[in-house]
TrEMBL record:
SUPFAM superfamilies: NTF2-like (SSF54427). It holds the Pfam family Ring_hydroxyl_B. InterPro entries: NTF2-like_dom_sf, Rng_hydr_dOase-bsu. It comes from Amycolatopsis azurea DSM 43854. The keyword RNA-binding does not apply. Keywords: Dioxygenase, Oxidoreductase. The lineage of its organism: Bacteria, Bacillati, Actinomycetota, Actinomycetes, Pseudonocardiales. GO terms for biological process: 3-phenylpropionate catabolic process. The keyword Protease does not apply. Belongs to the bacterial ring-hydroxylating dioxygenase beta subunit family. Gene3D superfamilies: 3.10.450.50. One of its GO terms (molecular function) is dioxygenase activity. This is 3-phenylpropionate dioxygenase beta subunit. It comes from the Bacteria.
Length: 164
């Protein structure tokens, strides 16, 4: 792998990932879902080694329809996930380009989320695999895949009330 973090395509991918983190911390879920391609997947597997998410149990396995439903639950009406949601601050770092091309960038990163709710701080740590589809001809870059591999995914994980 000769691409580095200074490769313009990798920089674009990282900037999109950071923008996503900022939108999630701001609870701007409508803008968040617009960052995704129509065919994108957002997955939180229980098995950290899983690759075929259709045949295993996942905490989240969202296509565009499911992402839209999740956003609706987080933003409309009285939903405990929205009304009593945590304040979050997340850091996404340790970027390692896995596959870099003119049309897309696959990149691995770490994510730490500190969530504050009801006088208590919780820590969520994960390895995250992203595929960023690079826009061409004035199109914006978009997330084509995000797989959040929680470090404690095989343990009892509490309801988050926010998106990872």
């Amino acid at each position: 792998m000769t691409e580095t973090l200074t490769d313009a395509r990798v920089v674009r991918a990282i900037e999109l990932i950071w923008r996503e983190a900022a939108l999630l911390d701001a609870k701007d879920y409508e803008a968040w879902q617009r960052l995704y391609t129509e065919d994108a997947l957002y997955v939180i597997p229980i098995d950290r080694d899983a690759e075929d998410f259709d045949d295993v149990l996942n905490m989240v396995h969202d296509d565009a329809r499911m992402r839209a439903l999740r956003v609706r639950r987080m933003t409309e009406g009285y939903a405990i996930a929205a009304v009593d949601s945590a304040i979050t601050v997340r850091t996404v770092s340790r970027f390692v380009p896995a596959d870099v091309g003119d049309g897309s960038v696959s990149i691995k990163a770490s994510q730490i989320i500190v969530a504050y709710k009801r006088g208590r701080h919780d820590l969520w740590a994960a390895d995250v695999d992203y595929v960023v589809r690079l826009g061409a001809g004035g199109e914006e870059d978009r997330l084509a895949r995000k797989v959040v591999r929680l470090v404690d995914a095989d343990e009892a994980v509490p309801a988050a009330g926010f998106l990872l």
